[in-house]
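To: structure subgroup
Subject: Chain for Friday's discussion

All,

I'm putting the inputs and outputs inline so they're searchable in the archive.
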Amino acid sequence: MEFLARRYGERSLREFCVELVRTGDLRRTLRRVFRSDLQGLEAGFIADLN
């Protein structure tokens, strides 16, 4: 969560939570809010660790 807030902003993180609860569709919500899929976010997270 910290990574997402730092990279995309707290507003996007709030939008992600609201949209996920509203739709229940993780893939769609990731694409809509972060313009990425789970693999892309994971790759960004791992790169951020290094």
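Points worth raising on Friday:
The chain has a mean pLDDT of 96.
The chain has one domain: 2-49.

D.
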